């Protein structure tokens, strides 16, 4: 069993609360955490002295140091540098929302995204479960059954809409369909009225760099558009993206 450090966990809970409430006072944090003011004060001062928090009036907020770390993480792997151009290409081709998402810790995070008109589900930094998104299911389909079961054990199959897959057997059936057809679909599963199609982007060694997705309002992107017009655009951009990634591994 791993050894967990309670003080570190408390600091991260403070970070989460400051994000959730868009800033908070020491007393508000103490109430939320059910800890003494003196304990919370120690965490706040430590975080502030390490430039992770700023104090404005009597409220603490997350500092732009998180932006610095996030920008580093976003560009840490060399293939990610190509993602933005390919996402923008998809948006230009389809006039709908597109993103590139990667998996970490059993969830997906959007590294690059854009939509016309603006849709918050394509915002950079968005973090989502995998079973109810096209990108997530596309990546899950590349995992072994044991890896998929591990993700389910960790995060469950929460119901976001009446169309969300919440049964493990149904999810495995859909993943088999995705493996056979080579792409994943999301029809009103993440939120009502939103549909998307996604394909994975592979490295030369067949490992998964992430997933490209394009979609929009269900009334505007019916299944025929997703699996015809949009899928054709996705496959073209996927091939271009993977060619760029291969260039990173070619001998100089």
Describe this entry's structure for a reader.
This protein is of the alpha+beta class and 252 residues long. The protein has 2 domains: 6-63, Arc Repressor Mutant, subunit A (Orthogonal Bundle), CATH 1.10.10; 70-249, 2-Layer Sandwich (Beta-Lactamase). 46% of the residues lie in helices and 19% in strands. The chain has 9 helices and 8 strands. The chain has helices spanning 6-20, 26-33, 37-49, 65-74, 83-94, 134-140, 145-155, 168-181, 223-249, and strands at 53-56, 59-62, 97-104, 107-114, 127-128, 184-187, 194-202, 208-217. A hairpin with a 2-residue loop joins β1 and β2 (59-62). α2 (26-33) packs across α3 (37-49). This is IclR family transcriptional regulator. GO terms for molecular function: DNA binding; DNA-binding transcription factor activity. Keywords: DNA-binding, Plasmid, Transcription, Transcription regulation. Residues 65-247 form the IclR-ED domain.
How is the topology of this model organized?
Blueprint: H1 6-20, H2 26-33, H3 37-49, E1 53-56, E2 59-62, H4 65-74, H5 83-94, E3 97-104, E4 107-114, E5 127-128, H6 134-140, H7 145-155, H8 168-181, E6 184-187, E7 194-202, E8 208-217, H9 223-249
Antiparallel strand pairs: 1-2, 3-4, 3-8, 4-5, 6-7, 7-8
Quick recap of the structure?
The protein has 252 residues and is an alpha+beta fold. The chain has helices at 6-20, 26-33, 37-49, 65-74, 83-94, 134-140, 145-155, 168-181, 223-249; strands at 53-56, 59-62, 97-104, 107-114, 127-128, 184-187, 194-202, 208-217.
